[in-house]
Design brief:
The protein has 317 residues and is mainly alpha-helical. The protein has helices spanning 11-29, 37-54, 61-68, 77-91, 101-112, 145-158, 163-177, 184-197, 208-214, 216-229, 233-252, 255-270, 276-283, 287-299; strands at 128-131, 134-138, 303-306, 313-316. The strands form 2 sheets. Strands 1-2 form a two-stranded antiparallel ribbon.
Amino acid sequence: MSYEPPFKKTSRIDDLVFEIIELVGEFNASSVSDPKPWLHRRMRIKTIHSSLAIEGNKLAEGDVQGIIDGQRVLGNKKDILEVQNAIVAYGALDELDPYSIEDLLRAHSLLMDGLVKEVGTFRSGNVGVYDGEVLIHAGTPANYVPEVVAALFSWLSKTGYHPLISSSIFHYEFEFIHPFADGNGRCGRLWHTLLLSHWRDAFAWLPIESTILARQKEYYDALALSNSQGSSESFVELMLEIVRDSLKYWIHSDDKRTQREQDALSLFKDDPKATVDELAMFLGVSPRTAARVVKDLQDAGHLKRVGSNKCGYWECR
């Protein structure tokens, strides 16, 4: 008998699916979905930074950008290698078959090369997920992992659920199984993105990982709640909310904001001692909006203040 993951479709899940489908239409009609290399690059930087930050990576978005640009970045060697591996793995999305276990193992190898001993292979020992010293989830016993993963992939290739739902169920089941010695979180999120991208191309770039990072506690709480309920609908609801909110953010955070950031960097490159008030006049916005643009650039690692507010200057990165 074929495997069927425990899941009960709710009216809330149906409502979220319909809402997301409408938002995908808006997203495709917006300028954000245009094949602009610089915008796709920006989204990919956010994706990689966020997925690794969830796992404790300390590098900033600006550091991820520097590594992509081939610049020398100061930081923990393991953190830098994680970013380098993720760049390669996400760059290979177009080559991966979301229904192939062999490609799943390849993706794990790309993500975890040089970081763990068991790379591109299912774990040989048992694992648990801990909150401090408390075991909150024990993964599937190692000797059953290949069989259980094969059953999950078989279900995935045949299910009649909408891809928005089936990808979220897969994400939950993958984390429940915990098939690898390490890298399960980042691999599961990458595979979720891959599954969505085979439904709509735009999801190859949409950084849903950024929204997961912003709602990280809810993400782990939903995993734990679904574990205790023995059914994945709580986690599926949260992931659909995350997909919805990611779409909303990028629909409403259109080229106007991005163009302001580019114009601000242009001003500070030409005049490193320019003030926020001068930036506001240059952009034609309020000082408060200009200050927010500066903060966003600083948070992303694109802009750094050197020296005091009165006598210092701006350094663009």
